[in-house]
Amino acid sequence: MVALGECGTRSVAGAVFGSFAAGGRTLARRLLPHSAPGMLGTAGRGFPSFTLWRDAQATGPDCCGVSRTPSPCPSANA
């Protein structure tokens, strides 16, 4: 299970379920329709995927993530 939760309201905006073999990134991709502009999306270091990051940003939220190794962060001002 991978879930998208809201901190302020403590509600679940979306959740997807799948087998362990499906993998977290695959399940996270299925959550993208539940994100929207005005949300702050965060990703843990277990989700290092530029494609997933780009696709998440395209749905409208501001995105923030944690990486296993130092890497340049995309900037909205670039």
Mean of pLDDT: 77
Structural class: alpha+beta
List how many beta strands DSSP finds: 4
Q: What percent strand?
A: 15-25%
Strand order of the largest sheet: 1-2
Parts with pLDDT < 50 across at least 5 consecutive residues: none
State the distance separating the first and last CA atoms.
Answer: 35 Å
Domain module tally: 1
3D shape: globular
The topology string of helices and strands comes to EEHEHE
State the share of residues found in helices, binned by percent: 10-25%
Radius of gyration: 13 Å
The biggest beta sheet, please? 2 strands, antiparallel
The tally of helices reads: 2
Topology:
Elements: E1 2-5, E2 12-16, H1 24-31, E3 40-43, H2 50-58, E4 62-65
Parallel strand pairs: 3-4
Antiparallel strand pairs: 1-2
Q: Which keywords apply here?
A:
78 residues, alpha+beta, two-stranded antiparallel sheet, two-stranded parallel ribbon, 2 helices, 4 strands
